[in-house]
Amino acid sequence: MTTAYTNATIIPVEGATVENGTLVVENGLIKELGDDIDTTDMEVVDCENKFIIPGLIDAHSHVGLFEEGRTGGSDGNEATSPITPYLRSMDAIFTEDEGFNDARKGGVTTLGITPGSANLIGGQFCVIKAIPGTQIISDMLIREPAGVKMALGENPRRVYKNKNKAPSTRMANAHLIREAFYKAIDYRTKWREYESKLENEQSKSEEERNVISQPEFDMANEILVKILAGTIPVMNHCHRADDIVTAVRLSEEFGYKLVVHHATESHKIADYLVDRDIPVVVGPLMTSRSKAELRDRTVSTPGIMMDAGALVCITNDAPVIPIWMLRESMILAIREGLDPTRALETITINPAKILGVDNHVGSLLPGKDADFLILNGDPLDASSSVEKTYINGDIVFNRN
Cα-flanking dihedrals φ and ψ of residue 127, to 5°? Predict the structure, then answer.
């Protein structure tokens, strides 16, 4: 089935806005976009006076892990060891969490799902679509792992100080992360030496071959080695500027890719981060100063960081702030200085790039997944509503 959504103001995010435009969807993908398209033999949906934009993306969410409205639905923190890179968020997502309904109502079609911040190395991100009606998490999955969650600052030291265990200081935060990566380097060296010896022995005759002991497999080190190889980025929870600098220092020491999440005081060191090409996931914006490291939080941060040249996206950290309010967070940031001509990037293509799924989602381009919204007004206007949400060309929310 080929469907044409006609007569809309289409904002593709990557590319110019199309007035009185047509979006053509076929087999769950965007086939064509423009203002002069022949719709003969297509199903036509008239979108006069409507706006069409890409589905929204929140790069940092706990939907399905910290469930809403259900007793005992809290699976985001395995606070029994500060180093748990082997944990996978996808193994704990409750697909019937009410947060996914809220996401669809608010136009959020893609979510980066992360463990919480109790641990220094907390586990693996996955990226899923808010597809309804499935108990099978793999049906929602588009990338896994998309990163490994790490945390600096107050949370891990508070959690483990209460357990009379390390870390209880910021010094121990950095030390234990550093120790984990040095162990991973030793692990990698042992496996490389083993593989080299094995290759050498295979060139010998059967009588000349020596028995070579295989190193013990370790799931934690396997993930850390992938981080060291640059195949998985670190998604680092940091609020204070000094914690952000520590995260950068560790990333430069071990050579891994870094994305700063929360980035509360990133505006204080904007040039420092931009010079190093480090993306920032800023938020939640509509929250109180619930702990000391949020003292200097400001809604101006996304605008300051974008003006400085950083790759910026906005997060609601749901369920801290409800996922359906992601667009409202962007609108609030516009009021506080975010460039309105680029604001939609912070909740569409930029999080898609940070999560490594921009070849599928984040903008309306031919060949990408048909994840899009129909709104009854300008998406930058808080009075406008999402009327319909589509994922893979299928309608998943209809306000009417």
Answer: -120, 125
